[in-house]
Amino acid sequence: MIEPRSVLLFVLAAIAEIGGAWLIWQGVREGRGAFLVVLGGAALVAYGFVVTLQPESNFGRVLAAYGGVFVAGSLAWGVVADGFRPDRYDLVGAAICLLGVGIIMYAPRGG
């Protein structure tokens, strides 16, 4: 069963990780300064803490599932922050990744 808290934590983790990486990219690749690099590093540290709050206790499962969220979130970030226009293959791939997230995290398990 999908847990709203878990979904919210995945969204927060994606914002922290993708946003942190984007800030570092802006600071280094776009030459916008060291402050953005430091801010990006802080966001990446925050990401590391947010993922530990997932109710699922298996590190491998949480990080594997988060990988799918990262894929879809990165495309969405590109649309919002950089004007990126994903093509149908990007969208299909992201949908497959999110389906994988659902299976990995929320499939009923015995035991």
User: Main β-sheet, in a few words?
Assistant: none
Whole-number mean pLDDT: 96
- Based on Cα principal axes, name the global outline: flat
How many structural domains does the protein architecture include? 1
Unreliable stretches covering 5 or more consecutive residues: none
| Ends apart, CA distance between termini | 15 Å
Order of helices and strands: HHHH
Compute the number of helices. Answer: 4
Q: Approximately how much helix is present in the residues?
A: over 70%
Radius of gyration: 15 Å
Strand content: under 5%
Structural class: mainly alpha
Number of beta strands:
0
Task: Outline the secondary-structure elements.
Elements: H1 4-28, H2 34-50, H3 59-82, H4 88-106
Helix pairs in contact: 1-2, 1-3, 3-4
Walkthrough of the structure:
- By secondary structure, the protein is mainly α.
- It has helices at about 5-30, 35-50, 60-80, 90-105.
- The longest helix has 25 residues, at about 5-30.
What does this entry show, briefly?
With 111 residues, this protein is mostly helical. The chain has one domain (4-106).
Describe this protein with a few key phrases:
111 residues, mainly alpha, 4 helices, 0% strand, flat
